[in-house]
Amino acid sequence: MRLMIRILVAVLFSIALFSCDNKTTTQNDEQIATPMFSPSGGTYDEPINVLISCSTSGVNIRYTTDGTDPTNESQTYSGFVQIAASCTLKAKAFKSGWISSTVQTADYIYTTVARPSISPSGGIFNAPRTATISCTTSGALIRYTVDGSDPIATSTLYSAPIQINSSTTLKCRAFLEGKPPSAVTTAVFTMQLLKPIFSPPGGHYAIGQTVNITSPVSGAQIRFTTDGTEPTEASDLYSNPLNVAGNMVIKAIAFKSGWQPSFMESSYYIINLADQMQLVNGGTFNNGSSNVTLSPYFIGKCEVTELEWYYVMPLNGSVDIENEKPITGLHEDVTEAITWGKAIEYCNRRSIVEGYQPCYNYDKLGVNPDLWPVGWNSVVNHVLLACNWNVSGYRLPTEMEWMFAAQGGNPFSTYTYSGSNAIDEVAWYNGNATEVNNVGIKQPNELGLYDMTGNLWEFCWDIYNYKYPTTDVVNPVGPSTGSHRVMRGGSWSSDPSNCTNARRFYTDTNLESNFSGFRVARKG
Q: What percent of the chain has pLDDT over 90?
């Protein structure tokens, strides 16, 4: 009996719970939550943006700022409400089938004048600008300064746009009788000079050029250098066109009081490239093992200089260039160390720049080094290079071309060094030098070639073999296999015995040193 009573009570309790979970009210009995403001009402001294939100989803919020209660016809809330003057903000939420929310009310009070705004709001500019100032407080007077001080009631009255002609800190403040002044608005204008402009631009010219340098900004002074260093305010002042009669790099920076200096601009002028090559008429001479016959060819009067290198090859940032110093295997300003392989690349790129057909083709991938794979210049892969001896482009001299040129093109030369038996007359070596020197200072040989002895070991095309051929040869180009390439001539760090016309040396294609360089050759 007791068990039956307990079961009946449990059933009745379950029915009661089920009845509670199934309300008889409809959606029309639900009321929308009251909207909320952020930030809430209060006292402020500058314009603010008020966010209105509602915890009930899918509602349409209407608001007013004139103190009246919102209706279905009031302004729809779609984003921040900007409050720029004292007002009473009211909001109410609506949704079809729901009871509208109660009205949310907040008073926003301004005790000071609104902060003015400046347009543009400051920044870095390359030309004079006009700045305008405005204030949302009706009747407010705007005072401003351009000396960095905060404006006061007696500062200059803003009445028209302000011309910004130099770097300026513009500050402004709004004043209205009976109210404290606004907060200060600041805009910093930094005037940055544009780079100078060279005319004609840098490049390769058959004759000397008259170079003009100008600045786009009136009143700017241009300072320049021609020794490869970066100009300063103490450098030469540009006042007249520059006469560029030979290879030269010109660097220039514009300066003006009240302005940030321009970034440096550099122009490279390569003049009379044809005159920098010497024709060797060819002939037959004995190299000590056999007779060698050579066809006519051109060879550089000097080792390739830094200026000539940078005219053709990619740079690594800003560089200091010495016009007449030869480029060496180690140089902090090149994108890659100057090796035998980079000299090959230089020859092709220079040929392309000057309109000649390049000589070197790598593994049938063409003559454009941009298409050659990474690692092409390895000790193994260098044998995949092929030279087209019939085209007009730049190349490295063959070993025998180099030797004959060092002898002054004279088959019967008896000079120990290139152009003399006295090494100090013609060469930089370890007896008179501690580093590489500018080209063309020492006495040239009979062909007018400089530094064939000393200064830098010079790369040749040939793969190195410790013995010459013993039979007579015509235009030899060296062995087809091997791991090293030939270098000739000695360097600033060599003793006299390593600087003779007969001395031979070798390098792998990746040698990086400050005692190696090269000169170029071309088909005659």
A: 72
